[in-house]
């Protein structure tokens, strides 16, 4: 069969309109078959007055129907030439129907005229063709369609749709599913219960991604939209039924909770800056803090640990901002205050006296003595300092020390600061 001809929109005949009225009055309207023919419509002939197609050549069974609503109906019928003794120009399509057990009559008619196609006889086999025709029924409440189930052969589209439906079934392909399970391939399943820490994969995910269950529960009947979407990064939280997953990036082997410095904030990490966050956003960090007792009630004294927040919905992230790392035997996470060793300076003052006794009390000025032969040693921190008798005075003064004059590193900052490069402190979640 060549390509189907260009048929006009189907027209409900007067007989068909009468059947619609009867169906709306409680009688059953049944579509029985479709008739094909090669008759010709004369100029001026009213299609609505037809009681049958002009010249019927073949009868086609109805294989399915679709209620489109608003009184619109689509019939599907199958065209085959396996029993056709003589080919013909396919110009006519007639939809046949009846009321109750009454006589079959022409319900609707469609005409191709000169745009008809040729249907060859059985010596030139054609591929069976499913043809659709739209009809108006007015009311489907008392409507039936006579379908010959023996001739129903699914189309490729129908086969594919059925395969998709079949493959979704939990009991489909039991041998294959068992093989996958025994091979250790954890394919994400629908309506399955998962525990925290369970790992699953899915073909919709990128090759670098896997799912880790962070909240126990049962997956939904339908695949979550987030998995269907193109994911570019890890760290995405996905709600699936009552279960909750996080997308892991297998390219990053950093364990959850590890803290490091970075030039930028990569996906799957959060800044370790002491911010208050929602526990639901970082379930693995909460679990890690629970497992290893990394909680603190005093974030100032233990800036490297997790603050409890409100104890229910929030968490305070560790604060590693503007801090160096010190390796220690214990006390991990504790804050270490900045400090410097103490600097003590002592000196020995030598002076000469000229015979006059003298004394030096704390806070008094030194006096000058003229004798340049005898040595006076000041060794007591708080005085008084004294020496025999003589004439003259003692020279004295204040000793000040400025260590920055020996190295400019002193005084450059408020605390000890070696040469450094700034990085963002980040923690893997």
Provide structural commentary.
It is rod-shaped and about 125 Å long. It is mostly beta strands and 429 residues long. 11% of the residues lie in helices and 29% in strands. The strands form 10 sheets. Strands 1, 2, 3, 7, 8 and 11 form a 6-stranded mixed beta sheet that branches. Strands 13-14-17-16 form a 4-stranded antiparallel beta sheet, with no helix packed on it. Among the domains are: 11-153, no CATH class; 186-249, no CATH class; 354-393, no CATH class.
Radius of gyration: 48 Å
Strand content: 25-35%
* Overall pLDDT confidence: 81
Note the main sheet: 6 strands, mixed
Q: List the uncertain runs.
A: 347-356, 363-382, 384-398
Determine the structural class based on helices, strands and strand pairing. mainly beta
Number of strands: 29
Helix residue percentage? 10-25%
Shape: rod-shaped
Report, as a whole number of angstroms, the end-to-end distance: 64 Å
Tally of helical runs: 5
Task: Briefly say what this structure is.
With 429 residues, this protein is mainly β. It has helices at 14-24, 156-168, 174-182, 225-228, 283-292; strands spanning 11-12, 29-37, 56-60, 62-69, 72-79, 88-90, 92-99, 105-111, 117-119, 129-136, 143-145, 193-194, 199-200, 209-215, 217-218, 237-240, 243-249, 259-262, 269-271, 276-278, 295-296, 306-307, 314-316, 354-355, 358-360, 368-369, 385-387, 390-393, 424-428.
């Amino acid at each position: 069969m060549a390509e189907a001809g260009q048929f006009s929109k189907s027209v409900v005949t007067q007989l068909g309109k009468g059947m619609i009225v009867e169906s709306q009055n409680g009688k059953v309207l049944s579509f029985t078959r479709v008739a094909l023919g090669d008759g010709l419509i004369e100029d001026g002939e009213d299609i609505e007055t037809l009681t049958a197609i002009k010249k019927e050549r073949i009868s086609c069974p109805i294989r399915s129907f679709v209620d489109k609503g608003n009184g619109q109906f689509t019939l599907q019928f199958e065209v085959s030439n396996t029993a056709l003794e003589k080919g013909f120009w396919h110009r006519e399509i007639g939809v046949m129907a009846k009321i109750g057990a009454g006589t079959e009559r022409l319900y609707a008619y469609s005409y191709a005229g000169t745009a008809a196609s040729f249907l060859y006889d059985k010596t030139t086999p054609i591929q069976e063709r499913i043809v659709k025709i739209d009809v108006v029924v007015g009311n489907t409440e008392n409507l039936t369609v006579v379908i010959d189930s023996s001739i129903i052969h699914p189309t490729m589209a129908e086969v594919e749709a059925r395969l998709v439906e079949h493959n979704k079934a939990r009991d489909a392909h039991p041998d294959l599913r068992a093989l996958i399970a025994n091979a250790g391939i954890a394919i994400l399943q629908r309506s399955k219960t998962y525990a925290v820490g369970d790992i699953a994969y899915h073909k919709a995910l990128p090759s670098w991604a896997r799912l880790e269950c962070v909240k126990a529960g049962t997956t939904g009947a339908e695949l979550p939209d987030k998995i269907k979407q193109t994911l570019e990064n890890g760290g995405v939280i996905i709600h699936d039924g009552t279960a909750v997953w996080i997308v892991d990036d297998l390219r990053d082997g950093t364990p959850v909770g590890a803290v490091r410095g970075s030039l930028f904030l990569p996906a799957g990490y959060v800044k370790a800056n002491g911010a208050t966050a929602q526990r639901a956003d970082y379930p693995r960090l909460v679990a890690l803090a629970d497992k290893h007792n990394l909680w603190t009630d005093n974030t100032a004294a233990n800036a490297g640990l997790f603050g409890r927040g409100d104890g229910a919905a929030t968490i305070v992230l560790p604060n590693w901002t503007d801090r160096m790392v010190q390796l220690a035997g214990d006390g991990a996470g504790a804050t270490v205050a900045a400090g410097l060793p103490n600097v003590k300076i002592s000196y020995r003052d030598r002076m000469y006296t000229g015979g006059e006794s003298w004394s030096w009390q704390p806070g008094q000025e030194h006096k000058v003595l003229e004798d340049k032969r005898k040595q006076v040693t000041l060794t007591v921190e708080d005085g008084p300092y004294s020496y025999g008798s003589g004439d003259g005075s003692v020279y004295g003064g204040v000793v000040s020390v400025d260590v920055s004059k020996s190295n400019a590193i002193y005084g450059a900052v408020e605390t000890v600061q070696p040469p450094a490069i700034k990085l963002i402190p980040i923690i893997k979640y």
